[in-house]
């Protein structure tokens, strides 16, 4: 299994666990997207000030 396939598998496994706890897939994807954006922000943007 490639690294990307392994990562996708892990992400969806967490999604299934959280779904069982009452968190919807949409909420999960929204939070993952926000975390990835925040993780990328320092390398992609320069702060003015």
Structural features:
T1MK-like_N_sf, mainly alpha, 49 residues, 2 helices, flat, single chain
Folded structure, characterized:
The protein is mainly alpha-helical. The protein has one domain. Helix content is about 80%, strand content about 0%. It has helices spanning about 5-20, 25-45. The mean pLDDT is about 80. This is N6 adenine-specific DNA methyltransferase N-terminal domain-containing protein. Belongs to the N(4)/N(6)-methyltransferase family. InterPro entries: D12N6_MeTrfase_N, SAM-dependent_MTases_sf, T1MK-like_N_sf.
Termini, distance in Å? 45 Å
The major beta sheet can be summarized as: none
- Any idea how many domains? 1
Q: What is the C-alpha radius of gyration, as a whole number of Å?
A: 14 Å
- The helical percent reads over 70%
Q: Given the helix and strand composition, which structural class is it?
A: mainly alpha
The helix-strand sequence is HH
- What's the total number of strands? 0
Shape: flat
What integer is the average pLDDT?
Answer: 82
Beta-sheet strand percentage? under 5%
Low-confidence regions: none
Number of helices: 2
Give me the secondary-structure topology:
Layout: H1 3-20, H2 25-44
Offer a concise description of the structure:
With 49 residues, the chain is an all-alpha fold. The protein contains two helices and no strands.
